[in-house]
Amino acid sequence: MKLTLVQDQAIQALMAGIVGAETFDRVFAGIRFDNIEGTMLYAFAGNAEVASDIEDSYSPYIAAVASQVLDKQVDVVIVMPKVLQ
């Protein structure tokens, strides 16, 4: 299921509230939460290093927030660099 712009922005806004503005601007700048397949949420970030950092450090928080926004269980968050989009 492709996420709507509103769903994408809602997840971003809630994550900004969790990590704070400075961290959000540094780490999450340019992220796009794209689609969900089963319980896996796919997102695209600026580059491979940022994608890896987000996936390793923030996946549980993103999964919890996305589960609320989408009203669907999210267990796994996969973040890929935008070049693979």
What labels describe this entry?
85 residues, alpha+beta, GMP Synthetase, Chain A, domain 3, 3-stranded mixed β-sheet, 3 helices, 3 strands, globular
Most strands sheet: 3 strands, mixed
- The CATH topology corresponds to GMP Synthetase, Chain A, domain 3
User: Ranges with pLDDT <50 over ≥5 residues?
Assistant: none
- Computed structural class: alpha+beta
Cα separation of the termini:
16 Å
Residue-averaged pLDDT: 95
Q: What is the overall number of helices?
A: 3
Class in CATH?
A: Alpha Beta
Number of strands: 3
How large is the share of residues in beta strands?
Answer: 15-25%
Pattern of helices and strands = HHEEHE
Which outline best applies? Answer: globular
Indicate the CATH architecture: 2-Layer Sandwich
The CATH homologous superfamily: DnaA, N-terminal domain
Explain the overall architecture.
It is a single chain. The protein is an alpha+beta fold. The protein has one domain: GMP Synthetase, Chain A, domain 3. 53% of the residues lie in helices and 21% in strands. It has three helices and three strands; from the N terminus they run ααββαβ. It has helices at 5-19, 21-27, 48-70; strands at 32-37, 40-45, 76-81. Strands 1-2-3 form a three-stranded mixed beta sheet. The longest helix has 23 residues, at 48-70. It is globular, with a radius of gyration of 11 Å. It starts with a helix and ends with a strand.
Quickly describe the structure:
By secondary structure, the chain is α+β, with helices and mostly antiparallel strands. Helix content is 53%, strand content 21%.
